[in-house]
Amino acid sequence: MIPKPGSQRSKQRGTSLLELTVVMAVTAILAAVGASQMDGGGMELSAAHQEIRGSLDQAFTLARARGTNVTVALGKASGAGEHLPVQLSRKVKWGKPDHIPLPPNMDPPTVATLTGEAHPILTVTPRRTALASVWFLNDGQGALCMRLSGHGQLQVLRWKRDRQKWVRV
Hints:
CATH topology of the largest domain: minor pseudopilin epsh fold
Strand order of the largest sheet: 3-5-6-7-8
Helix content: 25-40%
Number of helices: 4
Largest sheet: 5 strands, antiparallel
Order of helices and strands: HHHEEEHEEEEE
CATH architecture of the largest domain: 3-Layer(bab) Sandwich
Radius of gyration: 25 Å
Shape: elongated
Strand content: 15-25%
Distance between the termini: 56 Å
Structural class: alpha+beta
């Protein structure tokens, strides 16, 4: 049935400006509450995580395609040969701040804890193997722990300040 022009049914098709304003206000309040619950910092750490993961993925792909080993240079590493350098923000530093504990069930890595880099030049093979290693990155408040297994699996943990614990990324 089609409502007649001017009838009560035809006038209730849209939303009023008041309803729209109320919905937008509620949405803004929910967004503000959600943003306050999130860890506000750490964008640089997220970018560093993606940079290292991307460099490792690229190295494994190149190693397989070429049939030869490929190296990834982390931090201030340099040396002879071809390296895939990892570029990090100036705000991201290598190492774990003293106020952040080690991840659970992890033995203290003497070099990585202090400098952040257990092996600054990492070699990956065409068979997707690598020298097992661990790196710590921090922005002064938050931290990342990146562990690479000998089978090329990268595990990333992030220190959550608000919960005072490491969580898997």
